[in-house]
Amino acid sequence: MALWHKLLAGAAGFAVGGPIGALVGGLAAYAYEDDIKKVVERLKPAPDPTRSTAFTVGVIALGAKMASVDGEVTGDEIRAFRQVFHVDDAEAAKLERIFEMAKRTPDSYEAYARQLAGLFEPGSTVLEELMHCLFHVATVDGELDPREHAYLRSVSEIFGFDERGFERLSAHHMEFMACEPCLFLGVAADAPVAEIKAAYRRLVREHHPDRLIGLGMPEEAIRVATDRLATITQAYERLKVQRGFT
User: Fold this and answer.
1) How far apart are CA 137 and CA 51, in angstroms?
2) How confident is the model at residue 109 (pLDDT cuts 50, 70, 90)?
3) For the segment 77-108, what is each residue's pLDDT rounded down to a tens digit?
4) Using alpha carbons only, what angle is made at residue 120 by residues 97 and 157, rounded to the nearest 5 degrees?
5) Helix axes 125-138, 146-158, angle to 10 degrees
6) What are 74-79's contacts with CB under 8 Å, separation 24+?
7) In a designed cystine with 217, which of 43, 157, 221, 242 is the match (CB 3.0 to 4.6 A)?
8) Which ranges in 15-162 belong to alpha helices (H)?
9) What residue spans define the domains of the chain?
10) Helix 219-243 with 193-207: angle, nearest 10 deg
11) What DSSP assignment string belongs to 129-190?
12) What is the mean pLDDT of the chain?
């Protein structure tokens, strides 16, 4: 389902207040009546429309707030959003409209982050995938502005990630920095082999696409998790060679 129809479908069954609920309501108000009718006619029950819609709207809202921390929203950042949501040219204008609405809402980014944190377990895989989406937007131009870095750190803290967790998240996106593969697994450089193997097995379980599908997450989260799983596996294989274990 296209992003625009997905958001309207979510709005039709969305029953949560706060800043996310207000933004969803604003999106529905912006839509044309015939758009809403078409979506409602095609709407199929989802296992958890609240969580799925919250993820999508959360990426948009927090990404829009982050993109404006340096005073401007660039074309690269809009393109990064289009990559995350696979938005085609026909829907590009609607995405920019949604992005602008999210950027201009009176609610702070902390308010959005706290509401999302309340919908999922602290430091959960879903919140981690959301952080990866935000990192993708922030680093699309090959660098990370210090203000964006501080923003991402703040959001990650609200989501329940500690310092090591934030370093692990950062390592996936900051190829322009020298990062040891242990950072991708969230273990210390001198961690014993048993700890490395346990960390790898845990991350594979958490990021397996089937797990997120079972949670009712949108396809954007599934794609991010699939890419992340490949990166984790590559890091593990590098560590096996470096440390000489099988």
Assistant:
1) 22
2) very high
3) 777 877 777 777 777 777 777 778 888 888 88
4) 80
5) 170
6) 74/141, 76/140, 76/141, 77/137, 77/140, 79/140
7) 221
8) 18-30, 33-42, 49-67, 75-85, 92-104, 109-119, 125-138, 146-158
9) 3-243
10) 160
11) HHHHHHHHHHTTTSS--HHHHHHHHHHHHHTT--HHHHHHHHHTT-TTS---HHHHHT--TT
12) 77
> Would you state the structure tokens that stand for residue 165, as one six-digit string?
């967790």
Residue pointed to by tokens 């809402």: 105
Q: Are 54 and 20 in contact (CB under 8 A)?
A: yes
Tell whether the model's pLDDT for residue 36 goes beyond 50.
Answer: no
Tokens 């967790």 belong to 165
Amino acid present at 162:
D
Q: Which two tokens stand for residue 151?
A: 């923003």
Nearest in space to 88 (alpha carbons), one of 18, 5, 166: 5
Average pLDDT of 157-164? 94
